[in-house]
Specification:
The chain is α/β, with parallel strands linked by helices. The strands form four sheets. Strands 5-4-1-6-11-8-12 form a seven-stranded mixed β-sheet, sandwiched between helices.
């Protein structure tokens, strides 16, 4: 099995936390003396991924400068800049030419420390067009949930309703050829445009459960403050060399 290439979506503006770090893009917020993006990259490197592309937007020059000034040993790190905001799906399409036959996509401002090896294990499965990580949640009303069939295949994203279930963990695997149906240079959302279109066209996406996996999204002031403790408490996940 060949490992997929990694695309980290790193173009977020971080409007809710702008007052805390007005001069850096959200993935570059410092945590324990390094950009948060370093810890995200180190985690995936620990899962065996070595070719990393960063989809950049807002203040993307800072991500490019970091890659050049402080490269991570053993990794190939490349930036692909969006001239205009393209959304999560548009970012994938924009960087597609730099990526191989299978693409693992995740956010540069969040970490889900589980399920990745099982997601990577789907590479090469002829019946699948990809997959995604599902996190168990006791109340999905804040997030919406994943509708999954008996074989663990994604049926649809459900609206926000009370009750326990799986929520989207924000990490995806795509066979590159299934993305050919989407236009480049057009704003697209993975959740609202790409995956619903694939599901409607009969493409099978496997949901990999990651129960009780540590998770952090630095999208609010409260979670930014928690980032250092999160990294320290899960240090073993970031030792990739």
């Amino acid at each position: 099995m060949t490992n997929p290439d990694l695309l980290l979506l790193s173009g977020g503006r971080g409007t809710r936390i702008r007052a805390m770090h007005p001069d850096v893009p959200k993935p570059m917020i410092p945590v324990l003396g390094r950009p948060f993006l370093y810890w995200v990259t180190a985690f995936f490197a620990g899962q065996g991924l070595r070719n990393v592309v960063y989809s950049t937007g807002h203040m993307g020059d800072q991500v490019a400068a970091w890659c050049q000034s402080d490269p991570m040993p053993g990794l190939t790190q490349t930036c692909c800049h969006e001239r205009e905001p393209l959304g999560t799906g548009g970012g994938v399409l924009n960087a597609r030419g730099l990526l191989g036959n299978w693409i693992l996509v995740s956010n540069g401002d969040s970490l889900c420390l589980g399920g990745v090896k099982n997601l990577i294990a789907l590479v090469g499965r002829e019946e699948l067009s990809g997959g995604l990580i599902g996190l168990y949640c006791s109340d999905t009303s804040r997030f919406g949930s994943l509708s999954v069939d008996e074989a663990g295949r994604l049926v649809a994203f459900r609206e926000k309703v009370p009750g326990a279930g799986l929520i989207n963990g924000g990490t995806y695997l795509f066979r590159k050829t299934v993305l050919d149906r989407f236009p480049t240079g057009t704003p697209l959302s993975i959740e609202q445009d790409v995956i619903p279109r694939l599901a409607a066209d009969g493409h099978m996406l496997q949901v990999v459960e990651a129960r009780d996996a540590p998770f952090l999204d630095i999208g609010t002031p409260e979670t930014v403050v928690k980032a250092e403790q999160f990294i320290c408490s899960n240090q073993a996940f970031f030792n990739y060399e």
